[in-house]
Amino acid sequence: MRTKLFLGIIFMLIAGSVSAQGVAASPEYIKQLTLKWEGERFDDGRPHVSDALLERLKNIQIEEAWGYLRRKGYNNQYEGDWKILHPESIMTGRVLTAQYTPLRPDYQQLVKVMGGNEKRDTIGGSNSWPIEILKPGDVYVADGYGRIIDGTLIGSNLGNAIYNNSQNGVIFDGGVRDVAGLLDIEGFNGWYRDDDPSYLTEQMLTSINTPIRIGRAIVLPGDLVLANQHGTIFIPSHLAAELVLSSEVVGLRDQFGFQRLKEKIYTPGQIDTKWTDPINADFLMWLKNYPDKDLPMTRKELNEYMNKKKD
């Protein structure tokens, strides 16, 4: 009886001491992390990048996005070497992050206390907590530190829940189970390290919407992600619009170069180096005659971008 009373007192003290902290980052903290974003935000503080921009991002090549970010000084935003449920598909979305660690019973108890304070379901597994707060267009990105055995973050049940909430998929530096069931979820996709039949038993959730590491990349809540068969790249929200537009212009330059090479107007050496003034003038005239309906951006966006490049 005394033991139970003692444990109860300890539990109450822990609950009181962590009332100012939580499993999920506060909106204020997320706003500090993403201070350079000037647009709308979700209630949790994450930047609300438009659905239209997410669609345009699907047409951007990983190399183009990588090159843009490197020029801006963001050198640690790419990760490759994935297993992919549907390699032929492209996924973009707004990142919701989760951090996992090896299981430690005393810390796990503290996490449950904090989750209870946040009105989360403490009966089931805490790996459902990030899933419960996903919104349409989100991508669930989790640092599982590469663990596979006894560290599978989802199976088909949670996979269905993820898709129902986000209409999107996952990126896990870790394992999954029941790949056959996950493949049956129409529209769902996943980038993960490997699969295993074991359950999540020796791994625990420690935080939601905090900065995490995915392989060689750093990921913040509210980043955009572009994921395809060539890897994943995580884009700071405040750079997303310019990155997409810049990459679209690079795509138009490539299209112009390929066409002029096919027409044998220029040599490969002329195209595959810094363009001369006559080639640049030819490109600008080519752009002027490009059908508006076929442009990946609006004509206004294109003209403003090209004028800015002249300055």
UniProtKB/TrEMBL annotation:
The lineage of its organism: Bacteria, Pseudomonadati, Bacteroidota, Flavobacteriia, Flavobacteriales. It comes from Zobellia amurskyensis. GO terms for molecular function: metal ion binding. This is RraA family protein. The keyword Signal applies. It comes from the Bacteria. Mg(2+) binds at D178. The keyword Metal-binding applies. Its cofactor is Mg(2+). Keywords: Magnesium, Metal-binding, Signal. Residues 1-20 form the signal peptide. InterPro entries: RraA/RraA-like, RraA/RraA-like_sf. Substrate binds at G155, S156, N157, L158, R177.
